[in-house]
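Instructor's aside before we start: the two examples that follow are unrelated to each other. I chose them only because their records fit on one page, so don't look for a connection. First example below.
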Amino acid sequence: MQLKNPILGLCQQSTFMLSAAKVDQCPDDEGFEVAFAGRSNAGKSSALNTLTHASLARTSKTPGRTQLLNFFKLDDERRLVDLPGYGYAKVPIPLKLHWQRHLEAYLGGRESLKGLILMMDIRHPMTDFDLLMLDWAVASGMPMHILLTKADKLTYGAAKNTLLKVQADIRRGWGDAITIQLFSAPKRMGLEDAYTVLAGWMELADKGTETPA
């Protein structure tokens, strides 16, 4: 017998809740939220859709499509949040400033935010924007887990080498608290590790149910 990760069922029944352009439009600040952040076109929406077995987040070949904080309900206490993609040059400056202002307000003031999943394209990791997010997470004491997305675009050996290098860079610059893994939405690589992190942050880690091995 093995324990089934309790987050699986919740993710599979997840539903769109609401979109917020400002912090005061967010759901009540209670329960458990995990936010997904990443540079535009880092595979954030694809990762969310793969983890939830649904098409909750809109994917597009045009970076910067996520322009709001999008909330997805897992149960009455737990939510996933798709944050605006950042760093895309073609987004008008006023809109960039709006995102930045309200994203900072959300990240800095949200009591129910229990952790941040940061997406990095494995072919272009550790951008300036990623470094800012790492700095913020460590300074604020916010748990962070990194998905090196699009790992299927490299050979396994090259992907593993990139993982080890980024892991070492993070350990040197930000310590051991931040965790990291390989992830591929189309290949469904890394799902189990990601679910384990989500379950822990949402206090579901000890509530597994037995399923046949």
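Example two begins here.
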Amino acid sequence: MRTYYIFLKENLSPVFFGWLLTFFSSFGQTFFISLFVPFILDQFNFSKSVFGGYYAVATIIASIFLLQFGHRVDSRPLRPLTIQTVLLLFASSIVLGLAIHPAMVFIALIGLRLGGQGFMSHISLSVMSRYFSADRGKALSISAMGYPVGEIVFPLIVGLLLTFLNWHLALIISAVTLLSVFLMIRKLNLEVLDVHEDNVEVSGGEKWEYFRQIVSEKPFSVLIPPVFTFSFVTTGIFFFQYVLAKEKGWPLEWYAMCFSGYAIVRFLFLLYGGILTDKFTASKLFPFYLFPFVLGLLALAIIPGKIAALFFLLFTGVSAGMSSIVTSAVIAELYGTGRVGQVRSLFSMIMVLSTALAPVVIGFLLDHGITVSQIGFGCAAALGLVSVNSFRIRSLFKTEEPVQVLATTETESKNS
């Protein structure tokens, strides 16, 4: 922990900015929106499948907008870009809180998913990947701490508000906390995190040509299967986690206790993952970070009784803690930092698409009699295959000549 103390002592301001954005990205994350879902279903007489369809389509639209505009983090000043994102998230929360028609719900969902899960996370992880080099792992791990802290804090706030107020007011009052971001970023020196003046915003044609080039090169075929599969499986499993618990015969209080263990392990490996990334590089860790999740899924499929829940969640916590750090860092290592925002926007769009598809596919399988154990086996096999494929990353670093798509302009900072 001493390494983190020294690192924070020298880099508190930029890392706090990264943490701040992931923390307030909570407003666009599934766990936060799900707190209001029962009230939305009742008011608008939505069935679960209809609302799920709204949510999936809104998420896909948001991912397309992120792909279209995500490159702006590579060329625009951070302060106005951050303010615009916070305003989008705030306005979308207010629209949902005032919603009197399904169309307002749908528009609000697009804004929440784009502003929260999309841009707040995208700006944070892109800037940390670009600004830091030697300490990139630690910067990403501390910034990503905003996710679990938000998962702890906001359900408590919303739960307390819902005790005394209707859901409309509870959501609007919760959204007011977003305004504190303006006060905090005024005191931060964000100019030091901005890109160089000569980093000109790419045109539409250049942008899509670069995306085509990325997709056609070998690194994409190595990186994208784990990114897609991990997001798909975790979203699908956790979306139906109480169905899973019921089928396996786990008491809900036992599952809740095991889930607390998952949160603790995820937190610890967020920290430890940053140290490992700085020590070994993300490219060396990349083939291995999904193996604990594979073991967890096999435990879910094979082990009888309550102990399966413990093994499943603890092993899953290891991979979940490592995931955002390793994947964000390896993108910077392979593609450079000159256009890291543009590259991350493509990977983020694919990840978001996987989270939209997962509940639909897993729900279909459950509806057609596929058991949780069978789903666990299938997911473990898929993750095992993509992990084996990930070992191809080593060949990308064997030659002195980089793959053409990797030869983007490096703008590594003088980082601490």
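The two ends are 17 Å apart (CA to CA).
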